[in-house]
Specification:
This protein is of the alpha/beta class. The protein folds into two domains: 74 residues, Helicase, Ruva Protein, domain 3, CATH 1.10.8; 199 residues, Rossmann fold (3-Layer(aba) Sandwich), CATH 3.40.50.150. Helix content is 36%, strand content 18%. It contains eleven helices and nine strands. Strands 5-4-3-6-7-9-8 form a seven-stranded mixed sheet, with helices on both faces. A two-stranded antiparallel sheet has the order 1-2. The longest helix has 13 residues. The N and C termini lie far apart (63 Å).
């Protein structure tokens, strides 16, 4: 049976007796999560699957008529307090891989898959042999690229020791430890290239920009904010890129949807050729730079 008394401030309480099945509770919980999430049903399903110890797919196929596990209550309380689902369940899917994530690490976003899509298109006729991921976080872009090209090797760089701990763990879990190495550093300072593929998702939020509570209050500010105009890190990276891109190679750089012109100017000033790619929502998301 499912018995719990949530804090009154959360505005949510357990169901009455007789309505404790997973199917019903997913629907009612999603209604409440709509106050804090743009994807309330998905959040409810992911948290329920985590509480049951099964995948979301298995939950929907096999467990909709199960009783709700007691652990689900605490998970919902955390989500109603704006804690990101990825931190609650400890993982996030990205491209073809699942990554462990936690506090102190930037959560991978689907929009960032635009960078991998750009690389797949560029290397349609040949595979990159070497990959560099600047600001790797939990290994997001590097490990996605290595999963796409099993013969490639790569380096992930990040200033955060906590992020690199997650990245190394993820490389081990994904059986990529022999192909992925990691280094703590300030962008590409001290990195010797060139690389066939350079990937980078730097901080690009302006200091005065308003962010959702689940981002602002939980994810690391150092991975989000980049000075008054959001361009501080692009200025550093742009100057480093020409020596990092191998002949015939490319760099894919994530941008905020209003930053295409400004970042393009920084890259072209370094002699690079730049093309824009949009994400699935049609927003400017990725700049592809070639020598």
């Amino acid at each position: 049976m499912w018995h719990a008394t949530p804090p009154p401030a959360c505005g949510w309480s357990p169901p009455p007796p007789g309505e404790e099945g997973v199917r019903v509770i997913l629907a009612t919980t999603a209604q409440h999560l709509a106050t804090v999430s743009d994807t309330p049903r998905l959040d409810a399903e992911l948290l329920m699957a985590h509480a049951l110890g099964v995948t979301r797919e298995r939950l929907l196929l096999r467990h909709l008529d199960d009783p709700v596990p007691p652990a689900f209550v605490a998970l919902i309380h955390r989500r109603l307090a704006h804690e990101p689902v990825a931190y609650i369940i400890g993982t996030r899917d990205f491209w073809s891989i699942t990554l462990a994530v936690g506090r102190g690490v930037l959560i991978p976003r689907p929009d960032s898959e635009t960078l991998i899509e750009a690389a797949v298109e560029h290397f349609a006729d040949r595979a990159p042999k070497t990959v560099l991921d600047l600001g790797t976080g939990p290994g997001t872009l590097l490990l996605a690229a290595l999963a796409e090209w099993p013969q490639a090797k790569g380096l992930g760089v990040d200033a955060s020791a906590a992020s690199l701990d997650f990245a190394e763990h993820n490389a081990n879990v994904l059986d990529m430890a022999e192909r992925a190495s990691f280094s703590q550093g300030d962008w590409a300072a001290g990195v010797t290239g060139p690389f066939d593929l350079v990937l980078c998702n730097p901080p690009y939020v302006a200091a005065d920009e308003t962010l959702p509570a689940e981002v602002r209050d939980h994810e690391p500010a150092s991975a989000l904010f980049a000075g008054n105009d959001g361009l501080d890190d692009y200025r550093i990276i742009a100057a480093q890129l020409p020596r990092l891109i191998a002949p015939g190679g490319m760099a894919a750089i994530e941008i905020g949807y209003t930053q295409a012109a400004a970042v393009t100017a920084l890259l072209t000033a370094q002699g690079l050729t730049v093309a824009l790619r949009r994400d699935l929502a049609g927003r400017d998301r990725c700049l592809v730079a070639t020598s």
